[in-house]
Amino acid sequence: ATERTFSILKPDATKRNLTGAVNAVIEKAGLRIVGQRRIQMSQAQAETFYAIHKERPFFGELVTFMTSGPVVVQVLEGENAVAKYREVMGATNPAQAAEGTIRKTFSESVGENTVHGSDSVENAKIEIAQFFQDGDIVG
Ligand code: CMP
Asked: Which among 84, 94, 101, 134 could bridge 107 via Cys, Cβ 3.0 to 4.6 Å?
């Protein structure tokens, strides 16, 4: 089915001027960027977005990193977009990511792993609603 997923190009991507390079991989995989905005995440936004990781030892580090520079928030659309994007991103830890994936190609550590993608259609809806209004997504 045609789905939408939520994506973030993280501060390590924008810092290294990799927005276009990562978007090229996304588009080459057949996903369409139907919403996109470059923002500076506030601490409150990052804490809300990552609330499920609140008890993890790396939570503070994660929020600090995600607010350390601009991010690009995106809505990606395509056939099985949620699973397709997770395949294109590769494993959370770039050391374990498959050849040709975004994280294998661009990421330097598990913390600074270049991209976020929703893990389910349900979470994609929640995450998209946190950063986009209906009129800002054009399919
Ligand atoms: P993401 O898909 O954005 O969701 C949670 C994030 O936590 C994950 O990507 C990683 O960037 C980060 N993360 C996961 N494990 C660790 C870790 N061991 N140390 C630092 N950050 C981590």
From this structure: 94
pTM over 0.95: yes
Instruction: Tell me the pLDDT band of 119, cut-offs 50, 70 and 90.
Output: very high
Residue written as tokens 């993280």? 10
Neighbours of 121 (CB within 10 A): 15
Q: What is the pLDDT of residues 84-101, one digit of tens each?
A: 999 999 999 999 999 999
ipTM reported for the complex, 2 dp: 0.92
What pLDDT is attached to residue 98? 98
41-73 residues labelled b (16+ CB within 10 A) or e (exposed): beeebbbebbeeeeeeeebeebbebbbbeebbb
Q: Which amino acid type is present at position 31?
A: L
107 lines ligand 1 (CB under 6 A): no
pLDDT at residue 48, as a whole number = 98
Residue 71, H or E segment: strand 71-79
Rounded to the nearest angstrom, the distance between the alpha carbon of 94 and the centre of ligand 1 is 11
Q: Which of 3, 6, 31, 116 is catalytic?
A: 116
Surface-to-core class of residue 31, CB atoms within 10 Å of its CB (0-12 exposed, 13-18 middle, 19+ buried): buried
